């Protein structure tokens, strides 16, 4: 067997057939699909059994709901392939030659880890850029582990099975973020990774909602702490920097929210992460603790009221960005009975025409009435400077660059 594709399956019947068909249509032969039903109750198991009846290279095993990390570990134990690939049940391969291309490249380069670039799919629209660093490669070639720029995106890689087993590389038993310690651990054990320009994985976005409770939040922050330790101990400096950057926004809001709610475990994690980043001389990084944290949350709530006062002064609300953050901003505004006039974007081709009943339009459509508009910039921080330049150039004077950490605290609950 050349490649085993491992799929943890939990209540994803609606997308699972497309996922399986994208693997079954691959030009590479001698592959198997190892599916682990993780206690589904929506007909996922029955659909898997239907596929297994039709195809002799699909293997199914079941377990009670233990999480995708446990399911992937079981899949690795069962896998018979020389290489293993990991697929989420709601994602798919964008072309029929993905596994063949990866497999032949891995053999030719004698690579333990070999993978390509990334695209996302949302409401019928494919996106091939605008991601964090390291999700898209500009050329084919080796990247030294110490120069690898990201801690995520493991699904677009093949892993030599013997390499994983010899180094005891498995998924931790966390409810959220299990893939990151697996990937960073694998990168730390490999001297180099062979990377390709070719897009080798398509990730479906914004079709499911995850609400963080305390357990999921603690597990998620623990994965970042684990990855920081691995990166620091193994000199993976670029990954270390990317992890520290990742803490801003949703993760820091999770830390502050649940620590403020009284979680001693979350307060301990904040303290431990502060110790890990305290000797990072290139940046002034420190996360708030105890009384400072509580005062910070009080100030954030005051800022929320000032934000609403600002909105009230304008006749039209525009949300710049129709992606993940934009949708969250829409939900937040509606919870306070505000309705945006439109989402505005710079490139209509990279976006849907409508998001939850709100039209997506070009920024050019509002230049003539810009003085009546208040623009909320709802994107990830690494895009803020670019968008600020666009708005300034087009003479929009009233805009608000959303601070994601503060925004998530405004929401009162954190939904991914």
What is this structure's SSE topology?
Elements: E1 3-9, H1 13-24, E2 31-38, H2 44-54, E3 58-63, H3 68-78, E4 83-86, H4 98-109, E5 113-122, E6 125-127, E7 141-144, E8 157-160, H5 161-166, H6 179-189, E9 192-204, H7 214-233, H8 237-246, H9 250-260, H10 264-277, H11 290-311, E10 316-320, H12 324-335, E11 342-345, E12 354-355, E13 358-362, E14 373-377, H13 384-393, E15 399-401, H14 404-411
| Distance separating the two termini | 37 Å
Helix content: 40-55%
Gyration radius, to the nearest Å?
A: 22 Å
Summed over residues and divided by their number, the pLDDT gives a mean of 91
Shape summary: globular
Taking pLDDT < 50 over at least 5 consecutive residues as the criterion, the unreliable ranges are: none
Work out the number of β strands.
15
How would you classify the helix and strand content by structural class?
A: alpha/beta
How many helices?
14
H and E string: EHEHEHEHEEEEHHEHHHHHEHEEEEHEH
The percent range for strand residues is 15-25%
Report the biggest beta sheet as strand number plus sense, adding barrel if it closes. 9 strands, mixed
Would you mind describing this structure in some detail?
It is a single chain. This protein is of the alpha/beta class and 416 residues long. It has 14 helices and 15 strands. The strands form 2 sheets. Strands 1, 2, 3, 4, 5, 6, 7, 8 and 9 form a 9-stranded mixed sheet that branches. Helix 7 (214-233) packs parallel to helix 10. The two termini are 37 Å apart. 39% of the residues are buried. The model has no long low-confidence stretch (mean pLDDT 91).
